[in-house]
C-alpha cells in the first residue's frame, strides 16, 4: 500500500493515464475518419453500379437493360450487392426480388427490408426514369468488418502499450520507493544516535541523488555540531570532576584533624554529601553523553529481561525494606523476554526506575517490577502506589535537571529519568509514563530480539 501512495507511483500513473486517454482520443478520431472513408467507398460503389445500369439503358434500350440487370443479379451475392428493376408501381421486372420495393427510399436500410435474413445495413440508391425504377444497394458488412478489425487492433495495441507503461510505472515506482526507504533508514539511524550514517549516492545522478548529497552534507554538519556539543559537555564534566575530587580529598584530611574542632565533623559531612551529589550528577551527564553517542552499541547481544529483573531483585529488595517499602519482582511465565541490548545499561535502566520509586513513593509503599512479552514485543515496567506524577508533568520529567520539587529540598539531580530515556532510545525502545491509580507506572517496550537484530543490520 505504501507503493500506491508514493509520489513516484502517482506521477507515473498520471502519465500513463494521460497517455491512454490521449491514445483513445486519437484512436477514436482515426477510427471515425477511416470509417467515414469506407462509407464513402460504399456510396461510390452503389452509385457506380446504378450509373452503369442507366448507361446501358440509354445506350441500348430496355431489352439490354433487362439483360444487364439479370446478368448482374446472377453474378452478385445479395449479402453484398442488390440490384432490382421494376416499374414505377412496384411491378418486378428483373434482378433480386424485394419484399416491398414501394416502401424503400434512398439511404440506409436493414437487410430484412431487402429480403435478407440478417440485419446488416445497406446503402440504397433509387433511380426513376420513364416508367421504370432502378434500385441498387451495397452492404456495409465489409466496411464494418474492416473498421471492426482496425478497432480491435488499435484497442489491443493500446492495451499492450498501456500495460507496458503501467509495468514501467510500477518498476520505476518500486525503484524510487526503495531509494526513499534507504534514505529514511539512514535518517532513522541518525535519529537513534548513529551520527556517522550516510546515504549511498553512487551511480545516482538524478534529482533524488542530488537531494541525497545535500542530506549527507547536512548530516555531516549535524554530526560535527552534536559532536562539538558532546565534547564540550564531556570536557566540562571532566574538568570539574578533578577539582571536586581534590576538594573531597582535602576535606578528608581536615576530617582526620577534626578533634580540635567539635562542630567541624558535622559540617564536613554536609560538604562531603554535596560533593558526592555533584560528582554523581557529572557521572550521570557523562553517561548520558556516552549513551547518546551510541558508543555502547558495540556491546549489544542477546539479553533476557527476566535475568535483568532477577539481578535488580537481588540488589533492591533489601534497599526497599530499609525504606519500609516492599519490592515485588515478577516475570510472566512461558514468555520470551529476550532483547538485543547492553545488559549493564538495561540493569541501569531498571535501577534508576526502582530508585526513583523508592525515593518518591514514600514509607509503606508497594513497588513492583514486571517483565513479559506480547504480540508487539517485549516489555519491562516499574510501578508504585505512591503519590505519582501529574499527567501534565509526564513529558517534562524526562528532561535533564527537571524536578517536581521546585525548591529542590529533596536529594537528587533530576537526571534519573533522562538517563532512562537515553538508554531506551539507544535500544530503540519506547518509554511511556502513566497513572497507576494511585502512583506512577513506567513501561519500556522493546522489539523482539530477532526483529531488533534485523533492524540494526539495516
List the helices and strands and how they pair.
Layout: H1 2-5, H2 7-60, H3 62-75, E1 81-87, E2 92-95, E3 107-110, E4 121-129, E5 132-139, H4 141-191, H5 207-256, H6 264-292, E6 301-304, H7 305-322, E7 326-331, E8 338-341, H8 343-361, E9 366-374, E10 377-384, H9 416-426, E11 430-435, E12 440-446, H10 449-457
Parallel strand pairs: 7-9
Antiparallel strand pairs: 1-2, 1-5, 3-4, 4-5, 6-8, 9-10, 10-12, 11-12
Write a brief structural summary:
This protein has about 450 residues and is of the alpha+beta class. The chain is about 55% helix and about 15% strand.
3D architecture notes:
This protein is an alpha+beta fold and 458 residues long. The chain folds into 3 domains: 143 residues, Beta-Lactamase, CATH 3.30.450; 84 residues, Orthogonal Bundle (Helix Hairpins), CATH 1.10.287; 161 residues, Histidine kinase-like ATPase, C-terminal domain (Heat Shock Protein 90). It is built from 10 helices and 12 strands. The strands form 3 sheets. The chain has a 5-stranded antiparallel beta sheet with strand order 2-1-5-4-3. It has a 5-stranded mixed beta sheet with strand order 7-9-10-12-11.
Amino acid at each position: 500500500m505504501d507503493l500506491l501512495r508514493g509520489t513516484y507511483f502517482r506521477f507515473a500513473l498520471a502519465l500513463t493515464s494521460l497517455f491512454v486517454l490521449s491514445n483513445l482520443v486519437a484512436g477514436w478520431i482515426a477510427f471515425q475518419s477511416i470509417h467515414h472513408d469506407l462509407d464513402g467507398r460504399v456510396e461510390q460503389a452503389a452509385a457506380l453500379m446504378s450509373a452503369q445500369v442507366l448507361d446501358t439503358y440509354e445506350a441500348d434500350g430496355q431489352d439490354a437493360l433487362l439483360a444487364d440487370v439479370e446478368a448482374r443479379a446472377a453474378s452478385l451475392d445479395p449479402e453484398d450487392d442488390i440490384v432490382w428493376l421494376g416499374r414505377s408501381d412496384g411491378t418486378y421486372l428483373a434482378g433480386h426480388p424485394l419484399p416491398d420495393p414501394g416502401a424503400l427510399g434512398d439511404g440506409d436500410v436493414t437487410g430484412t427490408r431487402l429480403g435478407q435474413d440478417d440485419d446488416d445495413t445497406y446503402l440504397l440508391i433509387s433511380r426513376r426514369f420513364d416508367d421504370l425504377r432502378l434500385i441498387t444497394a451495397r452492404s456495409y458488412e465489409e466496411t464494418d468488418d474492416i473498421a471492426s478489425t482496425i478497432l480491435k487492433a488499435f484497442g489491443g495495441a493500446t492495451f499492450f502499450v498501456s500495460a507496458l507503461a503501467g509495468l514501467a510505472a510500477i518498476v520505476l515506482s518500486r525503484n524510487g520507493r526503495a531509494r526513499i526507504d534507504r534514505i529514511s533508514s539512514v535518517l532513522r539511524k541518525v535519529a537513534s544516535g548513529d551520527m556517522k550514517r550516510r546515504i549511498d549516492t553512487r551511480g545516482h545522478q538524478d534529482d533524488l541523488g542530488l537531494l541525497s548529497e545535500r542530506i549527507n552534507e547536512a548530516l555531516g554538519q549535524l554530526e560535527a555540531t552534536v559532536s562539538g556539543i558532546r565534547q564540550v559537555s564531556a570536557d566540562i564534566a571532566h574538568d570539574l570532576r578533578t577539582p571536586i575530587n581534590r576538594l573531597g580529598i582535602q576535606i578528608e584530611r581536615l576530617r582526620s584533624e577534626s578533634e580540635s574542632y567539635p562542630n567541624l565533623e558535622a559540617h564536613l559531612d554536609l560538604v562531603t554529601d554535596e560533593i558526592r551529589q555533584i560528582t554523581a550528577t557529572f557521572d550521570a551527564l557523562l553517561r548520558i553523553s556516552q549513551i547518546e553517542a551510541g558508543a555502547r552499541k558495540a556491546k549489544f547481544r542477546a539479553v533476557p529481561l527476566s535475568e535483568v529483573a532477577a539481578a535488580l531483585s537481588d540488589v533492591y529488595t533489601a534497599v526497599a525494606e530499609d525504606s519500609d517499602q516492599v519490592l515485588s519482582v515478577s516475570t510472566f511465565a512461558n514468555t520470551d523476554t529476550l532483547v538485543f541490548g547492553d545488559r549493564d545499561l538495561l540493569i541501569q535502566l531498571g535501577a534508576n526506575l526502582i530508585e526513583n520509586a523508592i525515593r518518591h513513593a514514600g514509607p509503606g509503599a508497594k513497588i513492583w517490577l514486571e517483565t513479559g512479552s506480547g504480540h508487539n514485543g517485549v516489555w519491562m515496567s516499574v510501578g508504585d502506589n505512591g503519590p505519582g506524577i501529574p499527567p501534565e508533568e509526564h513529558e517534562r520529567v524526562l528532561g535533564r535537571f527537571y524536578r517536581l520539587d521546585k525548591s529542590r529540598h529533596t536529594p537528587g539531580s533530576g537526571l534519573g529519568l533522562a538517563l532512562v530515556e537515553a538508554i531506551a532510545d539507544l535500544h530503540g525502545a519506547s518509554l511511556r509514563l502513566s497513572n497507576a491509580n494511585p502512583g506512577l507506572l513506567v513501561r519500556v517496550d522493546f522489539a523482539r530480539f530477532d526483529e531488533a537484530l534485523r533492524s540494526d543490520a539495516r
